[in-house]
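I hope you will forgive my troubling you with a question about protein structure. The matter concerns a single protein, recorded as an amino acid sequence and a row of backbone structure tokens. Please examine both parts with care and let me know of anything in them that strikes you as inconsistent. Here, with my thanks, is the record as I have it:
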Amino acid sequence: MSRPLRLEFAGALYHVTSRGNERKAIYLEEADFQRFLETVAQVCERYNWVIHAYCLMTNHYHLLVETPDANLSLGCAS
């Protein structure tokens, strides 16, 4: 069964997270963390997101994202 569609609305806050396959590392060196943050910054600029908090672990991340324009799915697909 597929996941139900996420409701999106202006000004919403979302907890976005992702983990590596088999809980394996997704960041192998310090530069990987920096590149991820640069990518998130580009998505924020492009889609008008606001990141209120984040946590990067070696095998997963958490983002607290505000979407003033109700467009979470657009940024997650980038």
In short: The first strand starts at residue 12 and ends at 19.
